[in-house]
Design goal:
By secondary structure, the protein is mainly α. The protein has one domain: Na+/H+ antiporter like fold, CATH 1.20.1530. The protein has twelve helices and no strands. Helix 5 packs across helix 10. The radius of gyration is 19 Å and the shape is globular. It starts with a helix and ends with a helix. It is found in: Cell membrane. Keywords: Cell membrane, Membrane, Transmembrane, Transmembrane helix, Transport. This is AEC family transporter. It is a multi-pass membrane protein.
Amino acid sequence: MEFTIVFQSILIITMMIIIGAILARTSPLNNETRAVFINMIVNIAMPCIILSSIFHVDMNEDMFKRIVLVFVLSIVINVVGIALGWTFAIIFQKDSDRTREIALLSGLGNTGFIGIPLCAALLGPEGALYAAIFDAGVDVTIWTVGVVMLQKNRKFALHTLKSMINIPTAAIVIGLLAAYFNIKPPEVFVGLSDRLAAMAAPLAMFYIGMMIMGLQRGNVRQAAPKMWVPITVKLILLPVATIFMVHFFNFDSVLIQTVLIQSMMPTITLASILFARYKADEQMGALTTVLSTLLGLVTIPFMVYVMSLFIN
């Protein structure tokens, strides 16, 4: 992978975030605009990225095996990140009552909003497909391990799985079934999915830019002592651990690069929403998401460079 391509992609992402921040000056992010952005990204753009990727990748038995492998690796990496966050929280923040939040923020990355568009730009349709499968593994981890950790009674209920039934997941299932049975959609539908898929990155970055403008300095200073652990684990330690994990296996090059890039993603955007639902620290989730995204603009190119030293 050319490092210049990575740098250019991150630079474009940065410029999109700046545009989002400028937009927030005239149209501040509120509950209504937030819902509109999330609906367009999650229910239109991301499913179209998934379908577009499937339409442009030749499906065969080996490809399906690699898809299953990416899904399993995603869950393993997510759990490793959560375990690292939990461990570091206990060691460095013994008196903190936010251990469960720190653990989840350390392991769950923004593999949908940022990861899928970035992998599509860097690695093409195959990378976008693997990224979507990785993101599905993140969803499974959220609604199983994440929910159990956030609940006071620490019990898993089957009704939590209903949250995994969403349009991006349906797009993965429908697209893979169509590919497996060699069902080719009309060209007009393929063209439509390609064009709608191109909306994902700009909309997601505009949204993040608008979130950044909503930060309050006082809240950041107050929460900073709690946030350094999840940000360090998510942006540095987990990618390094993932590099060592996959370095010993002879996997497909695009698969390895996709998994590694997804492991480098900043904290998941859903964190604040998830924490609010289970009466955890919603503010900490939102602040960690925004700050890790800003720092990720620096750490992602650096970690990609480190990755290239091991892969090449």
